[in-house]
Amino acid sequence: MSSLQKPVYSQLIKAEAEKLGFLFCGIAKAGFLEEEAPRLESWLQKGFHGELTYMENHFDKRLDPRLLVDGAKSVISLGLNYYSEQQQLDPEAPKISRYAFGADYHDVIKQKLFLLLNFIREQTGEVNGRAFVDSAPVLDRAWAKKAGLGWIGKNGNLISKQKGSFFFLAELIIDLELEYDVEPTQDHCGTCTRCMDACPTEAIVAPAVVDGSRCISYLTIELKNEIPQEFKGKTDNWMFGCDICQEVCPWNRFSVLHNEPAFQPPPELMAMTKADWEEITEDTFKKVFKNSAVKRTKFSGLTRNISFLKNS
């Protein structure tokens, strides 16, 4: 491909990503993530991944996308907005993270990624590539940062100066050389520590370092055993996920409402009362969360969380 074609293809890809509903799209050169290697190693050695032992696997692949896709040249990072101001009607009901209000984001984003990959192939010819949404050893935030989409905040999330942080990240890794975006050098958190101060389980142990084993999202979704007693009364009524460190972030005053129909919550979910949740049956669970990310915690996991809150 001539050097003249690279910016043309990059612009076409970004325009198509916007048409597909992505909030933003950035492109980075595929290579070894040198800065991330010691950080990831230290994080794992400290046991901050808790029971997520799979995080210890494929260390090299996490740091080099060329080991995931033969001949990888470009990592296309995409963000899909999920910000919503809708709230559960009963203020005393156990809380669900905004990202899980609607359909499972894995399914919604994968479909869009495949459409984008097909578009790239139509424009450029035979391209080898893979789509990733939380499903493989890819360091989403590191690649999004490298693609110029934002900086890693003190809460460990990627933050965009224009859009805040209520968005999902996903990637296309392809063997096509493109024009690459410049990584922003500035961190705009400054001296603010609102997220660190607000975390009820003190999971943010240092700027941009999260002890995952103390994070409410981990405790209510990923943890398969009983929630440790030390967290009684500290999970702020969250039964699936947690939005605290994003809700207190000043940059999220720039969040805009999503326009993805699939992320609209079913009315019966938002209307459930505290009593409804405490008496939930497996049939109700299957009906309300039929296409939801909440299925990840299973009925047994959700009822464990509700029971933990009730006895806190």
UniProtKB/TrEMBL annotation:
Positions contributing to cob(II)alamin binding: R62, D134, N155, L158, L169, S217, C242, D243
Active site per database record: D134
GO MF entry, a single one: epoxyqueuosine reductase activity
Primary site of residence: cytoplasm
Cofactor(s) annotated in UniProt: [4Fe-4S] cluster; cob(II)alamin
Catalytic activity: epoxyqueuosine(34) in tRNA + AH2 = queuosine(34) in tRNA + A + H2O
Pfam families (UniProt xref): Fer4_16, QueG_DUF1730
Presence of keyword Nucleotide-binding: no
Cellular component annotations (GO), alphabetically ordered: cytoplasm
Protein's pathway: tRNA modification; tRNA-queuosine biosynthesis
Sequence positions that bind tRNA: K224
A GO BP entry: tRNA queuosine(34) biosynthetic process
Signal peptide region: none
Binding site for [4Fe-4S] cluster 1: C189, C192, C195, C249
Catalytic class of the enzyme: oxidoreductase
Transmembrane segments: none
Location in the cell: Cytoplasm
EC number(s) from the headed UniProt entry: 1.17.99.6
Chain ranges of the 4Fe-4S ferredoxin-type domain: 180-209
InterPro entries (UniProt xref): 4Fe4S_Fe-S-bd (IPR017896), 4Fe4S_Fe_S_CS (IPR017900), QueG (IPR004453), QueG_DUF1730 (IPR013542)
Free-text remark on how the cofactor is bound: Binds 2 [4Fe-4S] clusters per monomer.
Keywords: 4Fe-4S, Cobalamin, Cobalt, Cytoplasm, Iron, Iron-sulfur, Metal-binding, Oxidoreductase, Queuosine biosynthesis, tRNA processing
Alphabetical list of SUPFAM superfamilies matching this protein: alpha-helical ferredoxin (SSF46548)
Family label: Belongs to the QueG family.
Cited NCBIfam families: tRNA epoxyqueuosine(34) reductase QueG
Name of the protein in its database record: Epoxyqueuosine reductase
